[in-house]
Design goal:
eight-stranded parallel beta barrel; 15 strands; about 500 residues; alpha/beta; three-stranded mixed β-sheet
Length: about 500
Amino acid sequence: MSTGILKVDGERVVDSEGNTVVLRGAGIGGWMKYAIFSLGHSYPGHEREHRAAMLKVLGRSRYEFFFDRWLTYFFTAQDAEFFASLGLNCIRIPFNHRHLEDDMNPRVLKTEGFRHLDRVIELCAAEGIYTILDMHTVPGGQNPDWHSDNPTNWAGFWDYRDHQDRTVWLWERIAERYRGNAWVAGYNPINEPCDAEHCRLPAFYDRIEKAIRAVDADHILWLDGNTFVRTDLPVVASQKLIEIRQAMEWKHFDHILPNSVYALHDYSTMGFPTGEPFTNSPSQTHKLETQFKRKAAFMSTHQTPIWNGEFGPVYANPRLDADASSTNESRYALLGAQLQIYSRYRIHWSVWLYKDIGVQGMVYTDPDSAWNRLLQPFLDKKRELQLDAWGKHPSPEAQAAVDPMVRWIDKVAPGVKELYPTPWATERQVLRATFQTLVARSFDAEFAELFRGKSEEELDELARSFAFERCLKREGLNRIMMEHAKMRGDGKEEGRERIVVDEAGERDDLP
């Protein structure tokens, strides 16, 4: 039973009786904003391009039938019951603004887009699970990457007032709908923003905070810092820490908004195929804590709650990776080491993610399901051609194409490596402008063709592959999550351990 809408009280989040509530859980995954490995479609996962290709192949009726079935099967009462059984108490729900408003019909609310969102919020509430609503894509694209459903490498949201006006308008409609709902833990207005000028993000937060509060004065705002909230910057002497941090994440954040929690995203390359394997060495665990403390320094300085909105390894596929078992045990250990750090500092966290096709999910589709059988040849091609940015595997063919271009650009235009987002450097900029836009667009049609001629019965069977009872559970991950779901002092008015940033120079671990 809920004890009222959650509020911020200093460094704590509390219920209406003043009890401390620490939210721990997962992002639901690529559901109302699906990611490349949720549906397994062509890299890099621009939802609107993929949907357009599917509509062309299926036609309007079967297109709408399939996606309604898929959205329904993806999260049901069984999913909520299982999630709660692990002791987890919060699900972050990413959504694409296009579910609620069309770019070609702006400021006209698509009320039907709330149907599945309402359903999942209610299912979670019935199991005592809070939800955080995360607008993962905004009009124009808040960052230049694939996960903002941006088919370009330019974040147009920041350069057009109308994109920002529409985002404010839509959040006002969302706040009207969920004000008074005690199981909604609050609103995450923008995921991983990238404002190259740094001043427009805090100004927009000031604006949207006032707009939401005029409609809903009670719910918490969960606010991401700038530049993906996970920039690759050196940690240096504490005297200079603020200057360096602010250069990318918190520059121009000169005040704290009321009833707000500030967010970091704490991925580690040690959890990815191209990263250093995690062996639990003292130097590695020190690096994990150093990285976290640097990211959390802003919140510690301003004495606000801390939320790690995304983190987590990707996992090896035993059908494709001979050493998958040992690799995954290493990555479970990495996750456990991170969660131990978060418990010590009493932060809120949301692992990425709950359900997918077998990349990061706590629950994932069966390799023998209708969905995976249909897609496997296509997935093999993506792996071989390195067409996934997230969890990509080494590909000599792709690297042979990219390396000469990167060397040539660095030779004739050395300033490219300093272009914003600065952590990308030249190679990531090249990949984003070629593989992830031009090349990716051609694979959308190939993916959609896999569905040509499918009957409604066949489409239903494919969508049903995501139903809880047909999925597999990642037991090692779920065991770690359950172990850290509760911690000493829950419900008590306890302060967190103070965050003191190390003075030794070290670099962040950024996938």
